[in-house]
Write a structure and sequence with these properties.
The chain has 6 helices and no strands. With 128 residues, it is mainly alpha-helical.
């Protein structure tokens, strides 16, 4: 999915178009006045408020995959095809995570034993 670091009016208008919403419908969707959406048309470099940035992030995240693809295409962003994991790859990953969990548990046990030995030697009285 495309990530926008800082939304501008241009990005917001691209999202509106990708979602195929009218200015009024997009304003209602975001919980802003239609006048705000109209400003983005007139001032594409305008940076919306932080709250509106979050609303735009959420709208993009919740948009359909088709709308996300249209949004990325309107910005000239190439969508990357992610490789699909087959069952053997998932099995290998599961085994590796299991092995890492066993190693971590062994390290935690060894660390606890070393801490116990260090505590026992510091508690023992020194020579009289």
């Amino acid at each position: 999915m495309t990530v926008i670091d800082q939304w501008t009016g241009r990005h917001a208008r691209a999202l509106q178009a990708a979602m195929r919403l009218t200015g009024e419908a997009f304003a209602e969707h975001l919980g802003v006045s239609p006048r705000t959406v109209a400003k983005w048309r007139k001032r594409p470099d305008m940076v919306p408020s932080p709250q509106l940035q979050e609303a735009l992030d959420t709208s993009l995240h919740l948009a359909s995959p088709e709308a996300q693809t249209r949004f990325a295409a309107s910005l000239g962003v190439q969508q990357q095809e992610l490789p699909m994991l087959d069952d053997s790859m998932v099995g290998q990953l599961h085994a590796a995570v299991g092995e890492l969990s066993r190693i971590l548990a062994a390290l935690e046990t060894a660390d606890a034993q070393l801490a116990g030995k260090a505590g026992a030697t510091s508690e023992s009285p020194g020579p009289p």
